[in-house]
């Protein structure tokens, strides 16, 4: 039996799939996954599924929330730079911060990595980043899958996706139905580009004839280092804010930019007016606009422009919200107000 299994593995390896490398990758990633363990996890000896015990006594009317996402073409930058330990943080941020918009606490995540060839150390680095993101979000990395796709992908290529599950009390679900005219729109600073707009980023870099290892004085770092900055994970901060302050809604600022994503969290018959004069986007945004000849409209429709998450709070809760976020080490400010009448989000003024 063992001899037959070895023969089968050898034939599969000759076709481009290395089962032994996959097993070594699993061994290497175990220590990363262990960092994310929560007490609700149940061991499944078979390893075919992740099990999570729901403490029903803890909730009155629990509602499960789910989200799935990837990292877009930012993954190509990680591959070109041969830096693989941060892209997993981006993946977690994209998933859990969608969950927390509804007020849900992220409980667990699963990941899927497709690659041209399993390089155990590289896979372990990727999973290490996912585990770091999960640790920042307070959720468990409960399972995943690594698939080797020779012929469909080059040996150095990979892509990753993830799915997350969270939980929220039915009467604490946040969203547009809670938002009212006069509410404050609090902007929470992003760590950079996060994980959106990288197809445009790569076009700008290529057309400008730049290299990712180029030192850019106005950025104070190598270009690739700035562009690969991991997505900020806001989950714990948003949950803490919702526990202490009258938060009506959140908006995760991803593809489509600030105006489009904030509009999703506003009820019909309302809009919002934001003042660009209340913040200065990080230098990377001006660098891309200048080198790419990009208009303000193009920039604002593609990038977060320095705002990674927005919280909509009762007007009289804004100061308390800002103080709490500051205590948690986040830069935040009142960027505007919810208005009645005209729908949509309008940005006024000019950035300093």
UniProtKB/TrEMBL annotation:
CDD domains: PurM. Its EC number is 6.3.3.1. It catalyses: 2-formamido-N(1)-(5-O-phospho-beta-D-ribosyl)acetamidine + ATP = 5-amino-1-(5-phospho-beta-D-ribosyl)imidazole + ADP + phosphate + H(+). Pathway: Purine metabolism; IMP biosynthesis via de novo pathway; 5-amino-1-(5-phospho-D-ribosyl)imidazole from N(2)-formyl-N(1)-(5-phospho-D-ribosyl)glycinamide: step 2/2. Its main location: cytoplasm. InterPro entries: PurM-like_C_dom, PurM-like_C_sf, PurM-like_N, PurM-like_N_sf, PurM_cligase. Residues 180-344 form the PurM-like C-terminal domain. It is found in: Cytoplasm. Keywords: ATP-binding, Cytoplasm, Ligase, Nucleotide-binding, Purine biosynthesis. GO terms for molecular function: phosphoribosylformylglycinamidine cyclo-ligase activity. It comes from the Bacteria. It holds the Pfam family AIRS. Residues 63-168 form the PurM-like N-terminal domain. PANTHER family: TRIFUNCTIONAL PURINE BIOSYNTHETIC PROTEIN ADENOSINE-3 (PTHR10520:SF12), TRIFUNCTIONAL PURINE BIOSYNTHETIC PROTEIN ADENOSINE-3-RELATED (PTHR10520). Belongs to the AIR synthase family. NCBIfam families: purM (TIGR00878). This is Phosphoribosylformylglycinamidine cyclo-ligase. It comes from Nocardiopsis sediminis.
């Amino acid at each position: 039996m063992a001899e037959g299994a070895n023969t089968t593995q050898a034939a599969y390896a000759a076709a481009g799939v290395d089962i032994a490398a996959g097993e070594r990758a699993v061994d290497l990633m175990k220590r990363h996954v262990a960092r994310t363990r929560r007490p609700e996890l149940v061991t499944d000896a078979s390893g075919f599924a992740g099990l999570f015990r729901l403490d029903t006594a803890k909730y009155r009317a629990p509602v499960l929330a789910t989200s799935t996402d990837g990292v877009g073409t930012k993954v190509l930058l990680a591959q070109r730079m041969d830096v693989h330990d941060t892209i997993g943080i981006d993946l977690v941020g994209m998933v859990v911060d969608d969950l927390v918009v509804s007020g849900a606490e992220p409980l667990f995540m699963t990941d899927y990595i497709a690659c041209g060839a399993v390089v155990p150390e590289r896979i372990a680095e990727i999973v290490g980043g996912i585990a770091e993101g999960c640790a920042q979000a307070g959720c468990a990395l409960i399972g995943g899958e690594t698939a080797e796709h020779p012929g469909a992908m080059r040996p150095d290529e990979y892509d990753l996706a993830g799915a997350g599950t969270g939980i929220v009390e039915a009467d604490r679900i946040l969203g547009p139905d809670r938002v009212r005219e006069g509410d404050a729109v609090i902007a929470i600073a992003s760590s950079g580009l996060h994980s959106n707009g990288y197809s445009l980023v790569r076009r700008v870099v290529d057309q400008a004839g730049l290299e990712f290892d180029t030192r850019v004085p106005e950025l104070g770092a190598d270009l690739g280092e700035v562009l690969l900055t991991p997505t900020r994970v806001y989950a714990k901060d948003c949950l803490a804010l919702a526990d202490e302050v009258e938060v009506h809604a959140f908006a995760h600022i991803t593809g489509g930019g600030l105006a489009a994503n904030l509009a999703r969290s506003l009820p019909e018959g309302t809009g919002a007016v934001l003042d660009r004069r209340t913040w200065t986007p990080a230098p990377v945004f001006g660098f891309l606009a200048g080198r790419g000849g990009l208009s303000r409209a193009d920039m604002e429709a593609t990038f977060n422009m320095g705002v990674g998450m927005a919280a909509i709070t009762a007007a009289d809760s804004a100061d308390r919200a800002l103080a709490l976020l500051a205590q948690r080490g986040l830069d935040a400010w009142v960027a505007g107000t919810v208005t009645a009448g005209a729908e949509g989000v309008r940005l006024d003024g000019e950035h300093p």
